[in-house]
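Checked the freezer inventory, then went back to the computational side. Two predictions to log before the end of the day. The first one is the construct we discussed on Monday; recording sequence and tokens without edits.
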Amino acid sequence: MLLLDTHIWIWSVEGEDRRVNPESQRRILRAESADQVRVSPVSLFEVTNLSQAGRLHFNRSIEQWIEGALHPSGIRLADLTAEIAIDAGHIPKTGLGDPMDRLLVATARRLDATFVTADRAILTYARGGHVRVHDASR
């Protein structure tokens, strides 16, 4: 099972292959074909928030983009449970300063998924054995 970080999800859906290394692209495609790719509801919040702030632009409404990014693809929505929220609350701010990152990491742990990211802070945090990651950066 793979959990995609928000930026990886956007880049994958938008076909920005140059931003994701080839091995990551292959892993994501294999996992999609096996229905083993998830995104967190946190990513839906982040995409919507970035769109509203004018930092992301799509050629359709954000609702249509999200619908298209989830349903026809092999990407499914993960649950955001009380256990995930509590686990995220236990991750120290010194380890991960962004609360959304803490929720994403806790989701990956709860799913026992590999978290696909290019986020340096998360990759650094993962080196301590806190979450299984795959570095998708170039």
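The second is the one RB wanted added to the comparison set:
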Amino acid sequence: MLAGAIGFVVDAGVLHLLMVWLGASPIVGRCASFLCASLVTWRINRSFTFRQGTAAGWLSEWMHYLWASSVGAMVNYSVFVLLVVALPLVTRLPTLGVGAGSLAGLAINFMLYKRVVFANSKFDHSIADIQER
């Protein structure tokens, strides 16, 4: 949940910066912001949630993570685009669409991370244990 919350902040923040500084459209900017958020959540998940990582090496793990993320991202991005196109409020405030899309893809992503990417890792969900690290 912490990784997802931080990923949301990165996703929405990068999207906002791309739109304000570079004039990117929300739909195009979201592709870049998704990659940034994925990199951040992979590092958090690798370091805390699924503590041991995988034996395959970081590059292979990152590629598997991106693949797994892309499944949830299809749901996430579809909800985002639908809301941007259908609701003028979300076009003006795309963070609303980022939030709705993130919630839609959350369960799919976590299941794939746990069962595919970090299948041989110890799942650590103890907040007390995270605070000790």
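For RB: The chain has a mean pLDDT of 82. Helices lie at 2-22, 26-49, 58-86, 88-92, 94-117, 127-132. Let me know if you want it refolded.
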